[in-house]
Design brief:
heterodimer, A: hypothetical protein PF0899 fold, three-stranded antiparallel sheet, 2 helices, B: alpha/beta, Rossmann fold, 8 helices
């Protein structure tokens, strides 16, 4: 259950951004959650609803975009989303791939007022 | 760093946030949408990079040990103490007690215990504090023994150079397939307690294939703390990696 730790980092980040823009409150928080970031989206939502109760995010909607794992192939250059756990290029089957998205968690956008 | 404004955007995303605040611009209505595009854990990642720098200044290789509770992280460290040619220290993470640190100290290993309370993982800030209790001038390798957990520690960079993930035979099959995020992070996977293989229905070759499906270039070793040869192989792997850090 590290979702609570992650949400507390997220809310801290929202507070900083709101402060920079002298906003009175945050209306919407949009995040991108990698399918392989190691967090459970539902738990993240619950944690956000719990933590936002006090502070600048208390009326904020929480929008999650789940980012599937995306790999770039060093052999054929293709960029594809991976649906299975098999780390290889879906086009040419080469195992020589690098993950380019889907392992991280980002705060993408904020609506402030 | 973003070249235009020094904000924390680190990737080549296009973003056009104005630096006017809401109240400076009468054209703006009540609300305003801004693109932020910052890693949620960017403060932790920043601290992790700082920890790595700190280790590098002392030519110390940092290794993060992760696994389920009871798969043999502390036993491995104890076994290595008797056989290692290099010197090492351990930052220990557990929810409660300092039993693991005491076990290691009894073996003559410098160890500092972090009690996380209810936190299920170590983060870079906790490890940073731990590192201040370790004399880095005296050691070659610094281990972080993370909280026993195959989920949460995988999300937190604690500022080490390499990850070793242990999986023990009695845990049963399919652990690798069930916890892909953790095993994707591994530079070395150790199958531990292999002396118990005759007593369990555990197809170790199939588990190794599962690991390499998930991470084709991962290194894999089998460990049994009663067999010094198996411990020596782990020590060789670590010593090999350390050569590139001095």
């Amino acid at each position: 259950m590290h979702e609570y730790s992650i949400v507390s980092s997220l809310i801290e980040l929202c507070e900083e951004e709101a402060g920079k823009h002298q906003a009175a409150s945050v209306k919407r928080v949009e995040v991108k959650i990698g399918a392989y970031s190691g967090v459970e989206p539902h738990l993240l939502e619950v944690a956000f609803a719990t933590f936002k109760k006090t502070g600048i995010c208390k009326n904020a909607d929480f929008i999650m975009h789940i980012q599937p794992l995306k790999v770039r192939c060093f052999s054929c250059g293709a960029e594809n989303e991976l649906i299975t756990n098999r780390y290889c290029c879906p086009k040419c089957e080469s195992p020589n791939v690098e993950v380019i998205d889907g392992e991280e968690m980002y705060l993408m956008r904020l609506e402030l007022e | 760093m973003c070249k235009d404004c020094g904000c924390s955007v680190t990737e080549a995303h296009h973003h056009d946030h104005s630096h006017e605040t809401l109240h400076h611009n009468p054209q703006l209505n009540d609300s305003k949408t801004i693109d932020v595009i910052t890693k949620i854990l960017h403060k932790n990642d920043h601290e992790a990079a700082h920890n790595r720098e700190h280790l590098e200044k002392h030519h110390v290789l940092g290794i993060n040990l992760m696994s389920s509770p009871g798969s043999g992280k502390t036993s491995l460290l104890e076994a290595m103490a008797d056989l290692a040619d290099f010197s090492f220290a351990v930052v220990e993470g557990d929810l409660e007690t300092n039993k693991d640190a005491q076990r290691l100290k009894a073996k003559g290993i410098e160890a500092y215990q972090i009690q996380t309370g209810s936190a299920c993982h170590l983060d870079a800030f906790m490890v940073h504090k731990g590192l201040h209790h370790i004399n880095l001038n005296e050691i070659d390798i610094c281990f972080v023994e993370n909280v026993g957990n195959l989920v949460c520690p995988a999300s937190y960079d604690v500022g080490m150079h390499l990850n070793i993930v242990l999986v023990s035979i009695p845990e049963g099959e399919d652990k690798i397939a069930k916890y892909p995020v953790m095993f994707r992070k591994a530079d070395l996977i150790l199958f531990t307690k292999t002396d118990l293989l005759p007593y369990f229905d555990y197809d170790i070759e199939s588990e190794k294939r599962a690991a390499r499906t998930l991470k084709p270039n991962v290194d894999i070793l089998e460990v049994n703390t009663k067999d010094p040869e198996s411990i020596k192989k782990v020590l060789e792997w670590i010593a090999f990696k350390h050569r590139f850090r001095s």
